[in-house]
Amino acid sequence: MAPILIGPDTVALLYLTWPSRSMVPPDEHRERVQRFASGFGLILERELLYDRFRSQRKTMRATMGAMERIMSSLDTGVDLVRLAGRSHADTVSAIDLPLNELSSSWDKSLTKRERDVMRLLVLGHDNPAIAAQLAVTPSTVKTHVRHAMRKLGAVNRTELIARYQGVADTSGSSGRRVQR
What is residue 123's DSSP assignment? Predict the structure, then answer.
């Protein structure tokens, strides 16, 4: 008789009767049985671990698939909101501030899209962040900023923001007179 071990636990007993006409001495026969039981225990342990691994891998794949479906549905929802027939007044900034609450006396001079860009610029967003928020390319944002700078008579983004918020002198630091 020999125990079949998996780790410290005995999971089975191997019992073999002694053959009546065996030429193998009893001690050697006992050692062979114990080696067989030990090897069988290692094989069984490995198979059980592999079975557990397959089960965990299946669970992980199902979980990752569910996460992928959730993430792709969120991405699709955001893209649809940004791209499909939304009203600019309903646009919300990254800090959950409705963009139509930010306004300036310059708004009449700017196009609707330039106003959207300016409102995000005032909140401190850079071109890529503004582009992502408005679902346009960064070069389009750059063009809107350049047009707003020309219309407000600003020479840089800081002056543009200051003029838009009514902080800067509207006569223009560059000597250009700005008309509203």
Answer: T
Condensed to tens digits (0 to 9), the pLDDT of residues 107-145 reads 788 888 998 898 888 888 899 999 998 989 999 999 999
Question: Collapsing DSSP states into helix, strand and coil, what is residue 13?
Answer: strand
Taking CA 169 as the corner, what is the angle to CA 159 and CA 166, rounded to the nearest 5 degrees?
Answer: 70
> Is the CA virtual torsion 46, 52, 55, 56 positive or negative?
negative
Cα 19 to Cα 21: distance, rounded to the nearest angstrom? 6
Identify the helix (H) or strand (E) that includes residue 178. Answer: none
Q: Which of the 8 DSSP states describes residue 101?
A: G
* Helix, strand, coil percentages, rounded to 5, for the chain: 60, 5, 30
